[in-house]
Design goal:
Layout lengths: L8 H4 L2 H4 L3 E11 L9 E4 L2 H12 L3 E6 L19 H6 L13 H19 E11 L4 H12 L4 E8 L18 E8 L18 E4 L1 E3 L18 E3 L3 H9 L3 E3 L6 E5 L10 E6 L14 H12 L6 E4 L6 H13 L4 E6 L3 H15 L17 E9 L2 H6 L6 H13 L14 E4 L4 E4 L5 H6 L2 E2 H11 L4 E5 L2 E2 L2 H6 L2 E5 L10
Parallel strand pairs: 2-14, 2-15, 3-4, 3-13, 5-12, 13-14, 17-19, 18-20, 19-21
Antiparallel strand pairs: 1-15, 4-6, 5-6, 7-11, 8-9, 10-11, 16-17
The protein binds S-adenosylmethionine.
């Protein structure tokens, strides 16, 4: 199978393994629940490379659908390469905005270096019968396809869907360099053969869908008076005036009586399409005034329905969350069919709270969007908001500067030692118990207190106590040190792991 070569590849191929586990720190004020938990709908503020790694202990192999909308690398998004990869060429890239075609000779290398470790972590999070959908355009589609073949396997390539995009007005130009791009792509891969799609049910009823008639960008020929209004600043109407008049005559363009904004109607029902040509639906939307490429809720709903109309408890992950469209699609679909799907969003910008989470709050509570369009009633639901905390690293544990909480270290130790999902409801800190894996009962003697760590040891008495409680199951015990002979531990079927050095002992 052909593979893709790019600058920096040898350094990023295994970078996801070197990324340290970080603590996920709950923020009650920003959450919309009394019960903040990693098992709720989640909004995580932080870089997705770190956030995805931090999700592994709880969600590895559990996510049924991933939708991502990464920077397309157009040269206009201002995205910055920021991963702390240990390589001289890559260090030079850090913190710089990735430039335009022709001006930045490593722009595609940087993009691929950014995507590769994230795609590897996403694959680890995906369930065996799960699917991943990636929005992309001509700038990186060809590179992404080969990279995905390499990471997910060529046989797991399922399709590329075309979705209509806002077309540029080229009528004014005398000559063009390239054709107008009418479509963006959505690349679809599965993790294995066991992912099967659910064809949409045919519906007799044609759905009436009205969409805002304005689009981003300055196009003087498309800024005419319509129903007595000009388009908002830095926006233009979707079509030329003559076409708009024809649409009005056919009843396809109207003034929305509530928002007083022009809207146009899409004629097709979107419920019967099962091929890769989704030209009846626009990929982007501008309902929430999000400047960075907000997607259309109906487009994401279509993806979710395709994969999950029967799977109503699925976990859906979007690690480039932006304005949070994926969360709205999940919540609305749950409301519609009584499902219990959950979303996990990751957004690194500071607007994770005041745009991403705020939109989700409004969808849940039923407050109008920023264009003052009335939303349907609130759909109900909760979410928990987390920030990324300190890394859980041997060096930081040893220096004692940033000691993780009991729960965070337990989550990390349990997952790294067993490779199995950690379930915090089994944890009992007062009994030093962190859970039961397939092969062991696991205990951890730890407090985020350097004095405790210097003075605590697994003793012979304690080892015998543990053995009595555990019946016949082998025990795995993490503690700062031990005062008990190895032969005694062997007799008691206890594997001792010294904190923090031997966290990898069992699995590795
Ligand atoms: C194109 S927008 C996504 C728009 C989204 N689909 C919507 O409908 O609003 C990409 C988003 O990914 C975020 N992003 C980019 N790199 C990221 C990273 N490394 N970690 C987390 N978020 C990131 C950007 O801040 C931006 O909000």
């Amino acid at each position: 199978m052909p593979t893709i070569e790019f600058k920096g590849k040898s350094f990023v191929q295994n970078h996801h393994l070197a990324v340290p586990f970080h603590q996920l720190v709950p923020d009650k004020k920003k959450s919309l629940t009394d019960n903040v938990s990693l098992h709720d709908n989640l909004i995580i503020h932080g870089d997705n490379l770190i956030a995805l790694k931090a999700l592994l202990p709880t969600y590895a192999g559990k996510v049924k659908c991933i939708y991502i909308d990464p920077p397309y690398n157009t040269g206009n998004e201002g995205w910055v390469y920021n991963d702390k990869v240990n390589s001289p060429i890559i260090k030079e890239w850090i913190g710089h905005v990735v430039g335009k075609e022709g001006e930045d000779l490593t722009r595609h290398d940087k993009w691929l270096c950014m995507m590769m470790p994230r795609l590897k972590l996403l694959r680890e999070l995906l369930a065996d019968d799960g699917a991943i959908f990636i929005s992309i355009d001509y700038n990186e589609e060809h590179n992404l396809r080969i990279l995905m073949n390499e990471i997910f396997g060529e046989s797991n390539f399922r399709n590329i869907v075309s979705v209509s995009r806002v077309k540029k007005n080229i009528q004014e130009k005398e000559l063009m360099r390239a054709l107008n791009f009418g479509y963006d792509s959505v690349m679809f891969y599965s993790k294995s053969d066991s992912c099967l799609l659910v064809p949409p049910k045919k519906t007799q009823k044609k759905l009436e869908r009205w969409h805002a008639f304005d689009a981003p960008g300055v196009r003087p020929t498309m800024e005419y008076d319509l129903f007595g209004y000009k388009p908002p600043r830095n926006r233009h109407w979707m079509y030329e005036e003559a076409r708009a008049n024809e649409m009005i005559a056919k009843g396809l363009l109207r003034m929305n009586p509530t928002s007083l904004k022009p809207q146009y109607k899409l004629e097709e029902s979107n419920e019967t399409l099962i091929d890769t040509n989704w030209t009846d639906i626009q990929e982007s939307s501008s309902k929430w005034n999000f400047p960075n490429g907000e997607k259309n809720v109906d487009f994401i709903r279509r993806i979710l329905k395709l994969v999950f109309s029967k799977e109503q408890n699925a976990i859906i992950l979007d690690s480039f969350a932006g304005s949070g469209t994926t969360a709205q699609a999940v919540l609305e679909l749950n409301k519609e069919d009584g499902g219990n799907r959950k979303f996990i969003l990751v957004e690194m910008e500071d607007y994770a709270d005041n745009i991403t989470a705020e939109r989700v709050r409004r969808v849940i509570k039923g407050v109008p969007n920023s264009k003052n369009e009335l939303l349907k009633q609130g759909v109900g639901g909760t979410f928990s908001y987390f920030d990324l905390g300190d890394p859980i690293e041997i060096s930081s544990i040893l220096s004692g500067k940033t000691l993780p909480t009991y729960l965070e270290l337990a989550r990390y130790v349990y997952y790294t030692a067993t490779g199995e999902e950690f379930n915090d409801s089994n944890l009992n800190e007062s009994k030093n118990y962190i859970g039961k894996s397939m092969n062991y009962d696991i205990y951890m003697y730890y407090k985020p207190d350097i004095e405790y760590l210097k003075t605590t040891a697994l003793t012979l008495d304690e080892s015998r106590n543990l053995r009595k409680k555990a019946g016949k199951r082998p025990l795995l015990v993490f503690a700062p040190t031990k005062y008990v002979e190895q032969t005694e531990l062997d007799n008691l079927q206890i594997t001792f792991c010294q904190l923090p050095f031997e966290i990898y002992k069992v699995k590795g």
